[in-house]
Amino acid sequence: MEAVRYEEFPDLPQEILAKRLFETERMERDEWLSSRRKGIGGSDVGAICGVNPYKSAMSVYLDKIGEAIPFDGNIATEIGNELEPYLRRKFTEWMKENEGIDIEVQEEKCIFQHPEQGFMFANLDGVFYHPEYGLCVLELKTANEFAKGSWEEDEVPDSYYLQVQHYLAVTGLQMAYIGYLIGNRKFDVKQIPRNDNVIANLIEIERNFWNENVRVKIPPMPDGSEDSAVALKTLYPESDGTIIELHHMQEERNRYKELGKQKKEIEQEMEAIKQRFMAEMKDAEIAFVGEKKVTWKVVTKKGYFVQPSANRQLRIY
């Protein structure tokens, strides 16, 4: 069976409505990174919306104004890039097996720009033609074994869901598929239809971020994440010796001290509970509370550079 061709189904969406802003096939990495700073890409959206566990709106802001610490990638990103051709092939096999159609994934080696919202960019892993949905977006992901719970049943990590909706907004297309590999053990696919309510909210959030933060160089509010703290330290690495007044932050200061007191009380209560488990378990190594397990095992540390030691550690699961 031959792959489906666009011209065979003229009534379905057959083209991306966005502008091809930058061709990326022959771009050097520095040039590509510079091009991305001119707008908001799909990988930025989760952080801007506060649902990316690894990246904050503050670090996206630093990147867009050219103040971020350069990121040359790591093993995870390198593996992800190397696996893309393999994942595209796995996706075409999945479509044949599960939907009974032969497809041809087309790489779009460019950065697209929304036809109306010029700050919205898209760098797609691929597109393909579906006889029912027309032209579709393909997004490819790799995840470690610990993240598999985020993909169970109909679940998709929030950050990836918003990324795909961003791409559908930029391209004007109606359907996306996301192919994902978990722990180099399982490949699967999720279908993500266009959600115009989510897209409307995304456009508003991204517009505010671009106009009220990036363009005027006013940092967004920090969110309490470690990434946000790193970004603030990057933005303000040294003090200049001045003294200022922050009387308007009296309420925040009082709340911080109150939370510190509560933290100490909570930690003390948690420790008392652990000690009650120890008292009940005595010499036992494992206990069950319903279906949940509590362990109090001896953990030994080998003495390479320090004296070897062994002590029992309690874990409440």
How is this structure best summarized?
The protein has 317 residues and is of the alpha+beta class.
Key traits:
single chain; 317 residues; alpha+beta; Lambda Exonuclease, Chain A; 2 domains; four-stranded mixed beta sheet; three-stranded antiparallel beta sheet; 8 helices; 39% helix; 20% strand
Overall CATH architecture of the largest domain: Alpha-Beta Complex
SS field, number of helical segments: 8
Measure the end-to-end span. 52 Å
What is the chain-wise order of helices and strands? EHHHHEEEEHEEHHHEEE
Question: What is the CA-based Rg, rounded?
Answer: 25 Å
* Most strands sheet: 4 strands, mixed
| Structural class designation | alpha+beta
Describe the fold and architecture:
The protein has 317 residues and is α+β, with helices and mostly antiparallel strands. The protein folds into two domains: 6-231, Alpha-Beta Complex (Lambda Exonuclease, Chain A), CATH 3.90.320; 278-317, no CATH class. Helices cover 39% and strands 20% of the residues. It is built from eight helices and ten strands. The chain has helices at residues 29-36, 42-48, 57-64, 75-99, 158-171, 196-214, 226-235, 250-281, and strands at residues 19-23, 110-113, 121-122, 126-130, 134-143, 175-182, 186-193, 286-289, 292-301, 309-316. The strands form three sheets. A four-stranded mixed β-sheet has the order 4-5-6-7, sandwiched between helices. The chain has a three-stranded antiparallel β-sheet with strand order 1-2-3, covered by helices on one side. The radius of gyration is 25 Å and the shape is globular. The relative contact order is 0.12. Residues 1-9 have low confidence and may be disordered.
